[in-house]
Amino acid sequence: MPSPYLSRCAAFGAAAMLLASFASSAFAEPVTLTQSLDRAQAGSPLITAAEAGVRAAEGRARQAGLPPNPEISVEAENFSGSGPYDGFGSAETTFALEQRLELGGKRGSRLAVARAEIETARLRLAVARADVAKDVRSAFAEAAAAEDRVILAREALQRAEDLARVVGILVDAGREPPLRALRARSAVEEARAKAQAAEAEAASARRALATLIGADSDSVTVADEPPVRFALTGPLDPTTSLDVRLADLEFAVANATITRERSAGAPDVTLQAGIRRFEDSGDQAVIVGFSAPIPIIDRNQGNVAAARADADAADARRRLALAEAIRRARDAEAALKTADARVAVLETRTVPQAEEALRLTRLGYEAGKFPLLEVLDAQDALAASKEDLIAARLDRARAIAAQMRAAAR
Predict the structure, then answer these.
(1) Of the four listed, 69, 172, 178, 404, which is most buried by Cβ atoms within 10 Å?
(2) What gap in Å lies between CA 257 and CA 313, rounded to an integer?
């Protein structure tokens, strides 16, 4: 059994840790949900990557609209041979300009794919912004709930210490056996351990929020503000959600890619025009010509088949996205209704009744009408009801975040 001196040292150390943690959070500047959202939107790597994706798609679209470059060629023949072809006296030199003409609608089909990819990239940016906002709202709510649990744990610790003091007085007066004082001190130690665990969980929640908003985790606390409600102007339409619209655009890109691959199988014509110089006579002549591949082997049929398969996959993802959007919208609505009802019951009935029960039990114990276990049970019941209220509020905040994500356009 530890000595009283060691027990007092342990208690002092635990109290010092709680005080240091409280001081670090007390001097930190609180951030509001709006500030958190703004900071996350400005510095989120996910959004930065999506913005880069838009610029990349715009660059590919510019490239897709460019025609092939002309080619210049120089050809010399009939020189450095034998007999009359010794040296350069009988050489023939040809200067030619060649231009490949794209046929089969290649450039138009490339542009169609590139423009559709730009719209897809822009919508992916909107999805990224909505996802980041949902994550920040959830992380902010979790950090607020963690801080509420710290307050709750400190209140429970204070009640346990007050009760232990009363029990000590009654033991000294001979109204309670010494075993009751031991039980009360044990309850204090349990409450202190829970307070330390709550502090650690709150620090973890603050770090998670700080990571999202790009802040120093040691200087982030959440501001105490009323929950942000989201007013719907009408019923959620899953078919217009960001995820469904993105899946529709990806399907459009896949169909445009089929057209592009088909056009890529059409043969192009290369025109040639130039001048040939005959060194032995000094004469010159104009040359013209054209060339085109014969599409008897490679008609780009493999890429066409692959594009068709990609379109089938995009169509399947589109149907899945619609089903998921319908489920998420309904789940968010149901979760919000459930959380609202639970919060209302806990705020108006359960917690006030638990507080009143504890007050009456403490009075009865001090008057000698109730045993110590009744008080401990009442304290546990109050702590449990307040913990349920914190959890219900967190569930409501998460449901609001999910509903706002489902309604994002």
Answers:
(1) 404
(2) 13
The structure tokens listed for 80 are 């450095």
Q: Crossing angle, helix 106-172 and helix 178-213, to 10 degrees?
A: 160
**Comparison of pLDDT for 78 and 230, the residue scoring more:** 78
What pLDDT digit, counting tens, does each position of 68-87 carry? 999 999 998 888 877 777 77
Give the separation between CA 47 and CA 40, rounded to whole angstroms: 9
Give the span between the Cα atoms of 345 and 225, in whole angstroms.
21
In angstroms, the CA 317 to CA 315 distance is 5
User: Which listed CATH number (1.10.357.20, 1.10.10.10, 1.20.1600.10, 3.40.50.720) goes with 4-67+102-265+300-407?
Assistant: 1.20.1600.10
Give the separation between CA 323 and CA 170, rounded to whole angstroms. 65
Separation between Cα atoms, residue 49 and residue 61, nearest integer Å: 18
- DSSP code at position 296: T
Rounded distance between C-alpha atoms, residue 237 and residue 325, angstroms: 9
Pick from 399, 251, 398: nearest CA to 330: 399
Which helix (H) or strand (E) segment is 278 a member of? strand 269-278
For 138-194, how does the pLDDT look when each residue is reduced to its tens digit (9 = 90+)? 999 999 999 999 999 998 899 888 888 888 888 887 777 888 788 888 888 998 999
CA distance 139 to 206: 8
The per-residue pLDDT for 234 is 63
Cβ partners under 8 Å of residue 253, min gap 6: 113, 116, 117, 120, 314
Q: Parse the chain into domains and list their residue ranges.
A: 4-67+102-265+300-407
Q: Kindly state the helix (H) or strand (E) to which residue 172 belongs, with its residue range.
A: helix 106-172
Q: Side chain identity at 25, as an amino acid letter?
A: S
